[in-house]
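Narrative of activities, Objective 1.

The group set out to show that a structural description can be obtained from nothing but a protein's sequence at a throughput compatible with the screening campaign. Below is one input-output pair from the validation batch, recorded exactly as produced.
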Amino acid sequence: FSENNNIAFIDAGKIQFPLVLRKWQQGDSFQPLGMQQKKKLSDFMIDRKIPLHEKENVLVLISGNEIIWVVGHQLDERYKLNSDSTKICRMELIGN
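Output recorded for this entry:
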């Protein structure tokens, strides 16, 4: 839908409310798009070569107890749109 990393299209049928937006914390993990297992967010940021001064401000969107979007970087595989998706939630980071 968009190549802009500040916009995410999420399968709304899988979201649990309320959603929580917070800074990432040590120990956070999620399942990056295309992966079959979880990965620590700290390792993901190292792999992506995200500079230390940017890491401090990385936000995550939480549904239930799961990270569904590393805001501005990567959607969680489990929340991506697929052929069974009937409702779409568009999230956008504005003012970054």
